Amino acid sequence: xxxxxxxxxxxxxxxxxxxxxxxxxxxxxxxxxxxxxxxxxxxxxxxxxxxxxxxxxxxxxxxxxxxxxxxxxxxxxxxxxxxxxxxxxxxxxxxxxxxxxxxxxxxxxxxxxxxxxxxxxxxxxxxxxxxxxxxxxxxxxxxxxxxxxxxxxxxxxxxxxxxxxxxxxxxxxxxxxxxxxxxxxxxxxxxxxxxxxxxxxxxxxxxxxxxxxxxxxxxxxxxxxxxxxxxxxxxxxxxxxxxxxxxxxxxxxxxxxxxxxxxxxxxxxxxxxxxxxxxxxxxxxxxxxxxxxxxxxxxxxxxxxxxxxxxxxxxxxxxxxxxxxxxxxxxxxxxxxxxxxxxxxxxxxxxxxxxxxxxxxxxxxxxxxxxxxxxxxxxxxxxxxxxxxxxxxxxxxxxxxxxxxxxxxxxxxxxxxxxxxxxxxxxxxxxxxxx
Amino acid sequence: xxxxxxxxxxxxxxxxxxxxxxxxxxxxxxxxxxxxxxxxxxxxxxxxxxxxxxxxxxxxxxxxxxxxxxxxxxxxxxxxxxxxxxxxxxxxxxxxxxxxxxxxxxxxxxxxxxxxxxxxxxxxxxxxxxxxxxxxxxxxxxxxxxxxxxxxxxxxxxxxxxxxxxxxxxxxxxxxxxxxxxxxxxxxxxxxxxxxxxxxxxxxxxxxxxxxxxxxxxxxxxxxxxxxxxxxxxxxxxxxxxxxxxxxxxxxxxxxxxxxxxxxxxxxxxxxxxxxxxxxxxxxxxxxxxxxxxxxxxxxx
Lengths: 435, 301
Fold this sequence. Notes:
The structure holds 2 protein chains of 2 kinds.
Chain A: H1 4-25, H2 27-38, E1 48-53, H3 58-73, E2 78-83, H4 86-98, E3 105-108, H5 112-119, H6 127-131, H7 138-143, E4 154-158, E5 161-166, H8 167-173, H9 181-193, E6 197-200, H10 212-222, H11 225-235, H12 241-245, H13 247-253, H14 266-274, E7 278-284, H15 293-296, E8 299-302, E9 314-316, E10 319-324, H16 331-341, H17 344-353, E11 359-360, H18 371-382, E12 385-387, H19 390-393, H20 399-411, H21 416-434
Parallel strand pairs in A: 1-2, 1-3, 6-7, 9-12
Antiparallel strand pairs in A: 3-10, 4-10, 4-11, 5-7, 5-8
Chain B: H1 2-16, H2 20-47, E1 50-51, E2 59-60, H3 64-71, H4 73-103, H5 111-123, H6 126-137, H7 142-149, H8 166-191, H9 195-203, H10 208-219, H11 221-236, H12 240-245, H13 257-266, H14 271-300
Antiparallel strand pairs in B: 1-2
Helix pairs in contact in B: 2-14, 4-8, 4-11, 4-13, 5-8, 6-8, 8-11, 11-14, 13-14
């Protein structure tokens, strides 16, 4: 192991190497990297914990800043939030973590990327924080581990996915939420008969990843959560006949899917849903950030229909929280910050300031109590297993392979065989690159 | 002898006595250039021979990354798209720019306004331009609405979401911005042509086409060199407009070598393979430009 300084210099030069060649080939590439330079490790304020945050949507940004302020007001350590655009944050995370003077803590989520960094010794062991965290569920505890007995993550909130719709529109159209796949298709048929695009989709304009929700849900409904996790962790193949099977029901739903769905970003798909041009959208509660406040009360959701009653019900319950750099110079202060964000009081404060649709990770904390959130929590509590989301259960590096494959399936369902074999080839390269 | 020896001696002394300031002026830029350009470029070349995820230590794999390109379909698509891009972006902006310059060359009332209007897109950032065009191309956007209004409903299309049209849809805003720039270069060239040449051609009874063919075109030769260099460099470095509009999708249909390099590096975190792609782009750009410029200079001489 080299010293922190040496390692960081080496990385700096390598990064510079990429930039250099890119600059010769394409100056825009240089521009892309130049932006990252200004977002590099932030200067340490004396004693203050720096929180590198990718929560850049307006309400989430306000909420995390309120959280940091409340933490400082308690006396003791203070925290400063440095909000970075999500895409920049994601691409710069390896540089942040390997730099000699990294930000202290980061917003992130559990999953394969977290355990990958943990295995490389880049994350702070926060086992002693967990000892103060009381009644967190065993599921949350195991989700926050590195697989080798260390706790490296502090969860603060989680959310749910489902088919969201407008209650007033369903009432107007005289339809009710389905619970089985047959009922779901019948509902689609009814809506189509009324001249409405039954299923909205926001898998265009930079948010192609939302199509992965369909893949995740069909796979956990038909093949089960364990098969799904194994597949996404590189222990299965995308051209497996069991994977191919999940595209049969999807193909049944395609004629009811909004043909513009691959051209619209999820924010635009939300608008189209609220206007009543589409019937429902499979999405996570984060979409509410793009909805006007007055429409929130009119929103409801139903669970992704059961396809095979013999498969234990699993739901997507992506969890968000924090981890810290192993090189943080403020270990004691970071742990104090983590102990604070794990409390019920802090999580309630965050929810109060945000759009309010997330659920607190601390079992003693109250959610915002709206019928929608209560129903979502009940659905997740009753689920036999929880999955995170495609990129969280696999990796951010695998997400573009899914985007290419799934959008192609939605547009050209007859090419499924070649889609799956191309997907497997692309995924194998990613896994190989990461080994 | 003495006469002969003297200048030699003087020359020697002159060589020995390079003023330190002058040395500084040479060595400092060389050092800066070396550190910021050549050293990173060499590092990049070394990285192209490794497998690297950006965090762990890179592992040396020799020429594996280059061998992989040969069987990589997406690389093939990206290379083909880059060629299409160079031909269309380059060809149309040169032809269009020249056409506009000819049209707006003669001093007429209000011609300044049109020149300024056509040049305006150059001022905007290409990313901002791309975002506006993205809205124009939306299923309910201006473009489809106009098609609907003039009775071409069957032409309505999800321009950016369809793999058959995505690349061309992205090309339009890039051209929209480039045309004004090329036009200005050609306008400057046209202004530099001696009007007497046209008068002489007219006296000889030359037609409009003959004037263009035998007067304008040869006179524009030096401007053509500049325009061609600019266009080739601009096409190979095109990245921002594609990345902000389609990110190379849907399913790699609008992928250029530059976007493929970026996504391989920073999305798939395969920095070794991405460096190999960067080397290929560099060789292409360098090859094209050097071959062209050397020839152009030789012709000028």
